[in-house]
Amino acid sequence: MAVNAGSSSLKFQLLEMPEEKLITSGLVERIGLKASVFTIKVNGEKIVEVKDIENHSVAVKMLFEKLINLNIIQSLDEIIGVGHRVLTGGRSLTDSCVIGDKEMAIIENLVDLGPLHLPANLTGIKAFKEALPNVINVGVFDTAFHQTMPEEAFLYAIPYDWYETYNVRKYGFHGTSHKYVTLRTAQIMGKKPENINLVICHLGNGASICAVKNGKSVDTSMGFTPLEGIPMGTRSGNIDPAVVEYMMGKKNKSCKEIINILNKQSGYLGLSGLSSDSRDLLVAAKNGHKRAILAIEVQAKRIADYVASYHCYIGGADAIVFTAGIGENEATTRENIISRLAPLGVKIDPKLNACRGIERLVSTDDSTIKVYVVPTNEEVMIARDTLRLIQQ
Ligand code: ADP
């Protein structure tokens, strides 16, 4: 079972391993609120139930009841491991690991690094431990894949003591996705992962670029928190930090309030004044909405900046890879980014690029760098790591 627990949500996928076959998937939303929504997909059909679900433990119990009642499994013994997506492992949990009391305590101590996500991740782990006390729970950290970044990439040029004493450094996120896409792209290109250099564009609501050299992450655009890097659905990405103090004064707001605006009211939403969703912006842009066009162009420019710089940093990319909601589905966004990289000799083929949600080479034969669309699959990566640790 691969689990992604948010503060009021719980996403799950049950996979047959090692075949990596999806058995069922679903989502519980509005946990702790009135009229929670439980959705489960069985044989392609969505079953939805609306009822009050008080907390994550109740959600997990309901999930197990459904799995049995809908004949998806005959007994809970069939679930041999649960893998949990965890936002960050900080400096000490550098790879996926079995979560025992010691690891729970370490994650609890890291809450400052992810005050929104980590308590939710912990709640999810506790709920599954309670419901299945004899089953191994594994933590799969969004930061783990980026642990191979060299110091020159992960250190900020700030007083060194901030890093040594307070752990302030770039951690990076979306690592599970970047790792899956690295392994899958190597397979598609017929190369060993240790021989592949990639620039991966994970473009979803949250978005990050990753520089992969010899199969390992050597730099990524998100930082100490997911706020750094390129503009996203509602996040600003990089800005001059002095803007924070300046706007605190102008708007008479606290630092926390300004950071909240940079996280939740910026990016696509802030620039366009319209929506955080790329689909809305693309429609509006077609109809000539100036600020929607601006939001799209600002993001594409910043993505192209990162791709060009990472291409140099890794000594030349074998491929540029697009993944996640926008990367997999938005042909115009891919084209906009790649056309900005024309001086590198990289070219997209409009016919090949006219695709959604499938694995495909989308560059021309004479492109100097191949361009691929590779749908991500974080759940499979979580299930693989869970199985690996159970076998160990
Ligand atoms: P996250 O996991 O960070 O919430 P996703 O990877 O689901 O984000 O990506 C969401 C973004 O992808 C939205 O901006 C959405 O508009 C865009 N998108 C475009 N086409 C699709 C599609 N067919 N399905 C889902 N998201 C899509």
What are the key terms here?
392 residues, Nucleotidyltransferase, domain 5, 2 domains, six-stranded mixed β-sheet, 15 helices, binds adenosine-5'-diphosphate, alpha/beta, 14 strands, eight-stranded mixed β-sheet, globular
Blueprint of the fold:
Layout: E1 2-5, E2 10-16, E3 21-29, E4 36-42, E5 45-51, H1 56-69, E6 81-86, E7 97-98, H2 101-109, H3 117-131, E8 136-141, H4 151-154, H5 160-166, H6 175-189, E9 198-203, E10 207-213, E11 216-220, H7 242-251, H8 255-264, H9 267-272, H10 278-286, H11 290-313, E12 319-323, H12 324-329, H13 331-339, H14 350-353, E13 360-361, E14 370-373, H15 378-391
Helix pairs in contact: 1-3, 6-15, 7-8, 10-11, 11-13
This protein binds adenosine-5'-diphosphate.
Describe this structure as you would to a colleague.
The chain is α/β, with parallel strands linked by helices. It has two domains: 2-141, Nucleotidyltransferase, domain 5 (2-Layer Sandwich); 191-378, 2-Layer Sandwich (Nucleotidyltransferase, domain 5). The chain is built from 15 helices and 14 strands. The protein has helices spanning 56-69, 101-109, 117-131, 151-154, 160-166, 175-189, 242-251, 255-264, 267-272, 278-286, 290-313, 324-329, 331-339, 350-353, 378-391, and strands at residues 2-5, 10-16, 21-29, 36-42, 45-51, 81-86, 97-98, 136-141, 198-203, 207-213, 216-220, 319-323, 360-361, 370-373. The strands form two sheets. Strands 5-4-3-2-1-6-8-7 form an eight-stranded mixed sheet, with helices on both faces. A six-stranded mixed sheet has the order 11-10-9-12-14-13, sandwiched between helices. α6 (175-189) packs across α15 (378-391) and α7 (242-251) crosses α8. The protein binds adenosine-5'-diphosphate. Adenosine-5'-diphosphate binds at residues 204-206, 233, 277-279, 324-326, 329-330.
